[in-house]
Amino acid sequence: MAVLTGVGWVVQIVVYPAFALVGGAEWAAYHRRHGSAIAVVVLLPWLVQGVSTAALLLEDLTPASVALAVLALATVVLTVAAAVPAHGLLSATQDPGTLRCLLRANLLRTLCWTASTLLAALTL
Predict the structure, then answer these.
(1) For the chain: N or C, fewer Cβ within 10 A?
(2) Quick check: 50 pLDDT over 90?
(3) Domain regions of the chain by residue span
(4) What does the DSSP assignment read for 46-98?
């Protein structure tokens, strides 16, 4: 969760705002490269979060473990419902409105990851 929190904040503050600086001619290749690169960065940490959250729920069903599971599920829902469609739209064209939607979705995901990291640290 801590890795995802860090990646989320870097993406929120640095990566997605920099999308606006990419020229139209370079946009499609840049966005495609971003998608490939970020997948490598987040795939393993997200898989670890899912497996560890499921194991925690099976081992120790407490309010904290349920809260961690809800926060993890929220990041998946936000990704599937908002971030993936926004990236789909952005793959075709560099639209400022879609980028704002992506930034909002990522902020919500990042806040969930941040809360998860803090809650996990407090329960240790």
Answers:
(1) C
(2) yes
(3) 2-14+42-123
(4) HHHHHHHHHHHHHH---HHHHHHHHHHHHHHHHIIIIIHHHHHHHHH---HHH
